Amino acid sequence: MTREKIRFVEKMHLLPRSVRTLARMIGLILAALQLASPLPPPKILWIQTLPVAADEFSTVMLPNGSGMLHIEAHVKNAERVYFWVNFLDGLEENRQLIYEDLNGSDGWAVEFPYDKEKGFSYQLIALVTGANRGIGYELVK
């Protein structure tokens, strides 16, 4: 055999092995993808408000004067948590985004300042989004 034919045979010998290796790797990747479950949806486990808790209608009756309302969400599978508030003022109801938390490493929470001479009512709403593009929504209870 000539030197060129020997090189060709060596290359042909290597090609099937690399093709087999590649096929094995692709098979393993496909098997792993089939076993992997889709990302679970985001879920709000519970929400806590301080200094006063929300009632069964998600309404917080704030005391007279000014202060800070602490709202903390305990969630699973979240990328973002949005905190909304409905200002309940007689018949008028205005929903407003008060905070968008993009990083849960320090907890999913917000300090909401209030300042009213009389007690005031807020209805709190939390919305959570996850990596699977799912949405969890809850009136704070």
What does this structure look like?
This protein has 141 residues and is of the alpha+beta class. It has two domains: 4-36; 43-139, Immunoglobulin-like (Sandwich), CATH 2.60.40. The protein is 23% helix and 48% strand. The protein has one helix and eight strands, in the order αββββββββ. It has one helix at residues 3-35; strands spanning 43-50, 59-62, 65-76, 80-89, 92-101, 108-116, 120-129, 135-139. Strand 7 and strand 8 (135-139) form a beta hairpin. The longest helix is centred in the N-terminal third of the chain and has 33 residues, at 3-35.
What's the CATH first level of the largest domain? Mainly Beta
User: What is the average of the pLDDT values?
Assistant: 72
State the low-pLDDT regions, or none.
none
CATH topology of the largest domain: Immunoglobulin-like
Count of DSSP strands: 8
The CATH architecture assignment of the largest domain turns out to be Sandwich
Helix fraction bin: 10-25%
Keywords for this entry:
141 residues, alpha+beta, Immunoglobulin-like, 2 domains, five-stranded antiparallel beta sheet, 23% helix, 48% strand
Give me the secondary-structure topology.
Elements: H1 3-35, E1 43-50, E2 59-62, E3 65-76, E4 80-89, E5 92-101, E6 108-116, E7 120-129, E8 135-139
Antiparallel strand pairs: 1-3, 2-7, 3-6, 4-5, 4-7, 7-8
Summarize the structure.
This protein has one helix at 3-35, and strands at residues 43-50, 59-62, 65-76, 80-89, 92-101, 108-116, 120-129, 135-139. It has 141 residues and is of the alpha+beta class. It has two domains: 4-36; 43-139, Immunoglobulin-like.
